[in-house]
Structure formats: C-alpha cells, structure tokens
C-alpha cells in the first residue's frame, strides 16, 4: 500500500505536464477555432484518390463532361 | 446550357443562396451533373466558379446556405478598388514580409456561414498559383494568407475570394478585439485546470469514500488528503477566480447575484477542508469544490462563446471606410492610405468608391448613397458646397472634396460615441436567479449562524462541522445551475431556428417584453427597391418599355437602376448609346437612333407635347418614374420597397401575444404611412434622427416599458445598444450585429413570435428549476442541521438534484407544438 507514496506524486506530476501542454496549445492559438476542425474530417476531398473500381457509387460525372 | 422543364414552378429556391427564384429566371449551373436553378447572375457565376474548380463538395457539406452575392457586373470597378491594396503605403498597415521574401496578411472575410465555407475558401485560395498558405478560422472569420508577391498580387487573392461570393477586408486588430481574445484564452485555461485536476481529485475521493468505514489506515488517509489539497489549490485560486472577483464586486455595489453564494460555498468548503487536513480531523470536500467549479465554468464558457460569436468582424467600423484615398496634389494624383489624410487635403472620389473622410464637395456633383449610415436606400443628390460623410458611397460622378473631419471627430466616430453612451445607460435587467439568490444568501447565512450557535451551546465539539455541513449541503449547485442550463438549452434551440442569442439576459427579457419597436427599411421591408407596377401610356408593350428602361439604366449602379436590372430578366442588356446622366433628374440615351428619357416626370417629359409632373402619377403609394421618347410619354414605372412577406402576419401575432407594436424610422416619405397601413401598425414615429430614436426608446423605458428593438442599419446602432433587448437582422452591418443582444440570422420575422413563445416557456422552466432547488435545500437543511449528513450523502444529493434540473432544462431543446407557427 505504501506504493501510493510514489504513485500519487507521479500522478500529480503527469497532470501538471498535461496542464502545461494544454496551456501551451491555448496560448499558441491552436484552440482559436473550435468549430471547423470538427467538420473538416467529413469532407470527401479524397475522391480522386479512390480507384474507380473501388468506388461504391459510380461518379455522377467524369471531369471530361464538366459544364462549359 | 439547357434549362430543364421545371423552371416555371413557383417558389423554387436558388441552389446556391436559397432565396426564391424569380419566375421565368433563366440562370442555371450544372453541379454534380444536374442543372441547378439559380436566382441571379451573381449566384450563377459563383456556383460556376465553384463547379469549375472541382469544389462541388461544398454543396454537400454546408449546413447553411450561402449569402447571395451582389451582382458581379462591377468587376472593373472592383478590380480597381482591389488594386489599391497592392500599394505599399496601403499594405504597410496589415501586411508583413517574411524572411523568405513572401508576404503574409490577416484578412477579415464577410459571408462565411458554415464550416463548408471555410473548406471552400481554403481550397480555392490555396489552388491559386503563388499562394503558399491559406487558413481560415470559422470562429472569428479571419483568414491568414501567405503569398509570393512575384507570382500573385494581393488584389488577385481578393478577386478570387470575390468570385466565389466572399468579401475580403484587411484586418486591423483593435484593442477591444485583443481583449476578447485574451478573455477567451483565459477562460479556456481555467476550464483546462478545473477539468484535469477535478478528475485527479475525484480519483482520490473514491479512495477516501470507500475507506470511510475505517478500512483505510489513517496515515494513508492523511496523505491522500494532502495530495487532494495540492490538486484543489490551483482550481480554487486560478479557475474559480472569476467567481470571487464577481462576488467582491457585488459586495461593493451591494447588488447580490449568484456569484456570492457560489463563492461562499467554494471558499468555505475549501477553507474547512484545509483545516480538516491540517488537524487530521473532520471531513474534506475537495472533490465537491472542484467539481462544482468545473460545472459552473463550463456554463460560463458556453455563454461567453455565444456572446463572442457575433463580435467577430473586429474592425467592423473601419470596414466602412476604404483603405485608401486618391490625394490631389500639385504634382498630380497619388494614392495614399486613408488614415493618413489630413484636414484640408483635397481628394478625388471616383464613382462607386467609398468616401474616405468627412468633407465638402469643391468640384462636381453626384448622388451619394448614405444607406450604411441612415438606412435609406435612395441616394441623395449632392452638389458643390454640400458636405458628405465618410463611409458613404459616391454613386454617379467623380467628385473632388476638401477633407473637413478625420478620425475621432468624424461623423462615423460620433455614432460610435452615441453607442457607447447608450451602452452605459442601458437599463439593467434584474435576473430572476439573482433576485432569488439575494434572499437565498441571507437565509443560508442566518440559518447557518443559528445552527452554529445552537450546537455551540449543546455540543461545542460538533458545532464547527455541523455548521459547515449546513453550508455545504445548501451549496447552491442546483440553484446556480437552474438558470444557465435552461438558458443554454433554449439558446441552442433558437439558434437552430435562426435566432442567435448573444447576451445572457435576452431570454428573460424577451419573456417579459411589453413593447416591440421595429425599424422600417430593411427590417419590416426588404430594404431594396423593386419594380411594383408598370403602366403603359403609348402603344409599346410592357416588356418593350421595360427593355428600353433597362437599356437606359444598364450602366448605372443607382438602386433604381438595379431594380430595373432585376426586373428585366434578359441575360444581357444592350446598353443605350450616348448615355447622359442628369444628376438627381434622370437619364437620357439613344436606342436605335431614337432618343429616350427616364427619370422624374418633369425631366423625362420635357420634350413631350404635355409636360407631366407627379400629380399625374397613378397614385402616391410608390415612387413613380416616367419613361418618355422625344415626343410622347411611354410608361409609368412604380417602384417601392415592399414589406417582407410575413411581416403583416408577424405583427398580428405579436399583437395577439399582448405586445404593443411600434414602427420607428428615419424615413419621412409617404411610403411610411403606406407600410404602416399595410401591416396594421398603429403607432408610427417617422423622420427621426438616430439620437431622437434613442431618446424615444429611453422615454418608453423610463415609463416602465419592457422593450424589444428590431433594426439593422448603422443608424439603428445607438438604439439597438440603448434598448433593453435588441435584435439585429441577419443582413445588418457587423457593427449592428455586435451591439445587438440577438441576431435574426435568417431574416425571417416569423422567428420572432416563436422566440417569444420559447422565451416564455424558458421562464416557466427556470421557475420550476429554482423551486426544485429550493425544495431540495429545504429537505436537506434540517437533516444537516441535525448533524445527520455525511459528506458522501451530500455529494450524492447534490448530483441528483443537479441532474433533475438539467433534465428539466433539456425539455427546452424542442420547439413545442404550441411554438410552431405555420
């Protein structure tokens, strides 16, 4: 049980490191925009990287029949 | 591009901006292989650019419709305006040069509505050659752009933004803006401290609770207590600081709010826990203290986020002034930064440009669009000797000015000062929770003192701990959560339905409102002229007359001309030849060799056999223009600013809900009476200045009215700031939005009665929550006073009562059936 004399201080130090990291990220502006990163992973801008045969739906149009 | 057959359907909405497509519109863009209907050439052009750039995903992911772009016919002028940003003297205020020679600037972008806009902008700008980095922030609408000046000019970047429907402005951070930023960061750091350390303390608390039956050896128990003390200290001294500061301020101003009981609970429990830790006796409450702080901070953080949401354009006022001016010196014209202008400078303002400072016209005459300041959409005619105001737009001819006022003494700044004064004089809204807390605090303190005194006489050894448990049990957790949870839930619901609430008191004061005052132009009406009525006088058909009128007005950017551009659906108007503009009178020009006039009846009919004047106009409900040839009058065109579609219905509903509806407008024309009659508004005050508007609502408020003001223009800002509750339209200027308590994003007036109903329901909900919290305290208090409550019981009781409050508040996340308005 006396291990807690070691483990609890370690926990406190780890928590302090986490806080330091959090402060750093706030101060360096990483959390200025809390909205758009949550959406950005949803954008399918990898359409061109998927091989045609692997696509579940065939693309509605190919780049050649773009509107004039 | 081939049009599908369905284009005759009524009420089709534009695929790009969601506005109704006018019947017979021929604008289409192919997106994802399907022809999509557009409402105007502006939307069509923007959608085309987006589609051509392969950025069609934007339409899949967006959650709000784009704002409708202004007509894109002004590109030449716009180009010239954007090119001003390439000048070093203009750039030195917002562009910095990096070590590798590339340039970097922060821009404010208008027109961002959702995360898909950010994606679209970032992709579109980064794809330009020479742009090294483009990152857009959705929260504050700022873009950081880095580019190589040798490959691309800043004006091209502005143009690229414009082509997809966004307006860029250079960003000059002002002091207030920086303070807001600091406030946000501090709040986040507090939240982080409270969150991380609360988790640690809770872990240790589990050990203490499970060991409460004596299975934990006392030396371990003491160690865990000391560890908790170390963890709780930053939470109390750093994270909970705003509560203590607010409580101190309350004490000094003798105005009790919820912050005082909160501070007493946090401070008291923390002090007692330290005492218990040092003396190794009694109980510790570190877990309750930090958890309580964390919960409250979350509530405050969400409230602050909502408040900051609208104040993002930052230099909203500066955006009204152009970045540069053309200075006339003996050596010729030169472009200078607008903020370097001095009194007495002579400047040239080209048509379409914004006037950079207050001044007097020394040469030329033109019409000036003052809509940004006064809300009136019709330009005023100004001649030599007349004075003009910075921030207004020169519409027709080049004019030379001598600068009379710059900076703080200009008219624009004086409106801002009026605004500041209005803010100070704004009546304080007594919040229900604050009133309750006033009684609550006194009651708790008296009871705690009585209990302490009683136990001191019965059993001095127990007195301290029993008194403390009374204080902790009555810890106003549920009480202080009662209001914020209900408000947060209702605010979220309203936001989904298009009303953005930015200040905490709004929902409460909406529920109490007795009067609602509307501005006219842009609020009850659409805010732009449209062709209402055409009456032909000769053999030509309506369509032919319209085409002639459109050809005459083809080059003009006057609001009247725009009404004709919109009304004639022809995709390309062939402009008339030898167009001559008679300022304030009308236009003349030749079509197929024949001379035509359009404008004021007396002007247009000057060569006709019988000159006409306004008395011959069909009625006085619209503004009438006459189209005439050299020999005879051809047609009357009736123009007016129509009331918004649902306005009449909304006014009627508001009246039924028991509110007094008034209209307050700077306009003094006949249109005021017409609109008031149409919407059945009985009380109308017209032709008043911003200062008089403010006076009027202050008078009403002094007489005890609970007032809601709805408006949009810069001229409404002082009123918006001075009214108890103010709502700005979504199309309003940023400055107006920042100073309003709520913003009607969609511009749908129908949301107002809905919001009022939800606000009333919220008030009922808050009352239920407060009653429950008081009821819980009433039960728990005697038990604590009798010394029967252990800390873990207090903790569980507190959590359950809080959950009940939160659960009740969640009922507000849906608009009830009664709130739905068909």
From TrEMBL, chain A:
Organism annotation: Amphritea opalescens
Keyword Transcription set for record: no
UniProt signal peptide: none
Highest rank taxon of the organism: Bacteria
Transmembrane segments: 6-26
Keyword DNA-binding appears in the UniProt entry: no
Keywords per UniProt: Membrane, Transmembrane, Transmembrane helix
NCBIfam families: ccoS
Name assigned to this protein: Cbb3-type cytochrome oxidase assembly protein CcoS
InterPro entries the record matches: Cyt_oxidase_maturation_cbb3
TrEMBL record, chain B:
Superkingdom of source: Bacteria
Residue ranges of every copy of the HMA domain listed in the record: 103-169
E.C. designation(s): 7.2.2.9
Reactions mediated catalytically: Cu(2+)(in) + ATP + H2O = Cu(2+)(out) + ADP + phosphate + H(+)
Protein's cellular compartments: Cell membrane
Gene Ontology MF terms: ATP binding; ATP hydrolysis activity; copper ion binding; P-type divalent copper transporter activity
TM stretches of this protein: 191-211, 223-244, 256-278, 284-302, 436-456, 462-487, 770-786
Pfam families xrefs: ATPase-cat_bd, E1-E2_ATPase, HMA, Hydrolase
UniProt KW Thylakoid keyword: no
One GO CC term on file: plasma membrane
Membrane topology recorded in Swiss-Prot or TrEMBL: Multi-pass membrane protein
Keywords associated with the record: ATP-binding, Cell membrane, Ion transport, Magnesium, Membrane, Metal-binding, Nucleotide-binding, Phosphoprotein, Translocase, Transmembrane, Transmembrane helix, Transport
Keyword Transmembrane helix part of the UniProt annotation: yes
PROSITE patterns membership: ATPASE_E1_E2, HMA_1, HMA_2
GO biological process: copper ion homeostasis
Membership in a protein family: Belongs to the cation transport ATPase (P-type) (TC 3.A.3) family. Type IB subfamily.
NCBIfam families the UniProt entry points to: ATPase-IB1_Cu, ATPase-IB_hvy, ATPase_P-type
Protein's name in the database: P-type Cu(2+) transporter
Lineage start: Bacteria, Pseudomonadati, Pseudomonadota, Gammaproteobacteria, Oceanospirillales
């Amino acid at each position: 049980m006396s291990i807690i004399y070691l483990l609890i201080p370690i926990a406190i130090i780890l928590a302090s490191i986490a806080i330091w990291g959090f402060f750093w990220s706030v101060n360096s502006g990483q959390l200025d925009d809390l909205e758009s990163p949550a959406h950005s992973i949803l954008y399918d801008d990898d359409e061109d990287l998927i091989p045609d045969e692997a696509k579940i739906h065939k693309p509605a149009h190919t780049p050649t029949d773009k509107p004039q | 591009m081939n049009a599908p057959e369905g284009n005759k359907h009524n009420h089709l909405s534009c695929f790009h901006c969601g506005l109704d497509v006018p019947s017979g519109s021929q604008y289409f863009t192919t997106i994802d292989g399907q022809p999509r209907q557009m409402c105007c050439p502006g939307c069509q052009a923007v959608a085309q650019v987006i589609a051509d750039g392969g950025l069609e995903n934007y339409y899949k992911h967006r959650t709000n419709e784009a704002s409708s772009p202004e007509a894109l016919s002004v590109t030449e002028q716009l180009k010239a305006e954007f090119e001003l940003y390439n000048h070093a003297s203009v750039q030195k205020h917002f562009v910095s040069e990096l070590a590798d020679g590339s340039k970097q600037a922060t821009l404010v972008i208008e027109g961002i509505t959702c995360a898909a806009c950010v994606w679209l902008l970032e992709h579109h700008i980064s794809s330009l050659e020479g742009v090294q980095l483009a990152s857009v922030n959705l929260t504050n609408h700022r873009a950081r752009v880095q580019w190589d000046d040798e490959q691309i000019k800043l004006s091209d970047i502005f143009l690229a933004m414009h082509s997809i429907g966004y307006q860029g402005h250079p960003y000059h951070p002002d002091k207030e803006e920086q303070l807001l930023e600091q406030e946000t960061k501090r709040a986040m750091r507090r939240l982080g401290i409270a969150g991380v350390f609360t988790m640690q303390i809770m872990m240790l608390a589990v050990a203490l609770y499970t060991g409460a039956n004596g299975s934990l050896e006392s030396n371990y128990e003491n160690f865990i207590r000391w560890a908790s003390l170390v963890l709780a200290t930053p939470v109390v001294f750093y994270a909970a600081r705003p509560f203590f500061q607010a409580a101190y301020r309350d004490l000094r101003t003798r105005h009790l709010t919820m912050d005082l009981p909160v501070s007493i609970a946090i401070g008291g429990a923390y002090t007692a826990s330290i005492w218990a830790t040092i003396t190794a006796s009694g109980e510790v409450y570190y877990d309750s203290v930090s958890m309580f702080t964390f919960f409250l901070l979350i509530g405050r953080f969400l409230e602050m986020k909502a408040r900051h949401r609208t104040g993002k354009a930052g230099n909203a006022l500066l955006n009204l002034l152009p970045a540069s001016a053309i200075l006339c010196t003996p050596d010729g014209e030169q472009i200078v930064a607008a903020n370097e202008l001095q009194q007495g400078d002579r400047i040239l303002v080209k048509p379409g440009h914004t006037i950079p400072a207050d001044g007097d016209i020394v040469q030329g005459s033109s019409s000036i669009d003052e809509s940004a300041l006064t809300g009136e959409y019709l330009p005023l005619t100004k001649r030599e000797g007349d004075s003009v105001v910075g921030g207004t737009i020169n519409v027709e001819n080049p004019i030379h000015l001598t600068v009379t006022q710059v900076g703080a003494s200009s008219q624009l700044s004086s409106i801002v000062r009026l605004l500041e004064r209005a803010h100070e004089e704004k009546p304080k809204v007594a919040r229900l929770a604050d009133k309750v807390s006033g009684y609550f605090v006194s009651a708790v303190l008296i009871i705690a003192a009585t209990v302490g005194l009683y136990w001191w006489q019965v059993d001095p050894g127990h007195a301290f701990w029993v008194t403390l448990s009374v204080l902790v049990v009555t810890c106003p957790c549920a009480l202080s959560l009662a209001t914020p949870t209900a408000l947060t839930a209702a605010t979220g619901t309203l936001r989904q339905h298009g009303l953005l609430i930015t200040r905490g008191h709004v929902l409460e004061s909406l529920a109490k409102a007795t009067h609602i005052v509307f501005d006219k132009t842009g609020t009850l009406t659409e805010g732009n002229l449209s062709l209402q009525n055409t009456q032909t006088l000769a053999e030509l058909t309506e369509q032919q007359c319209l085409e002639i009128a459109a050809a005459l007005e083809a080059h003009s950017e006057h609001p009247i001309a725009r009404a004709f551009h919109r009304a004639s659906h022809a995709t390309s108007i062939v402009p008339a030849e030898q167009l001559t503009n008679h300022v304030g009178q009308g236009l003349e020009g030749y079509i197929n060799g024949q001379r035509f006039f359009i404008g004021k009846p007396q002007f247009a009919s000057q060569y006709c056999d019988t000159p006409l004047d306004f008395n011959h106009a069909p009625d006085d409900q619209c503004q009438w223009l006459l189209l005439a040839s050299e020999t005879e009058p051809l047609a009357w065109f009736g123009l007016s600013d129509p009331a918004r579609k649902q306005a009449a219905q909304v006014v009627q509903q508001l009246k039924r809900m028991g509110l007094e509806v008034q209209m307050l407008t700077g306009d003094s024309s006949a249109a005021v009476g017409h609109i008031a009659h149409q919407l059945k508004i009985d009380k109308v005050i017209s032709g008043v200045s911003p200062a008089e508007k403010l006076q009027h609502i202050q008078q009403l408020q002094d007489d005890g009215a609970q007032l809601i003001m709805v408006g949009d223009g810069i001229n409404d800002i002082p009123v918006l700031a001075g009214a108890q509750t103010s709502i700005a339209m979504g199309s309003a200027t940023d400055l107006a939005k920042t100073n309003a308590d709520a913003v009607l994003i969609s511009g749908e007036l129908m949301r107002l009665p809905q919001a009022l109903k939800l606000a009333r329901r919220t008030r009922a909900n808050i009352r239920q929550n407060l009653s429950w919290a008081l009821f819980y305290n009433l039960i728990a208090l005697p038990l604590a006073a009798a010394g029967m409550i252990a800390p873990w019981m207090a903790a569980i009781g507190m959590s359950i009562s809080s959950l009940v409050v939160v659960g009740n508040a969640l009922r507000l996340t849906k608009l009830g059936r009664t709130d739905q308005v068909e």
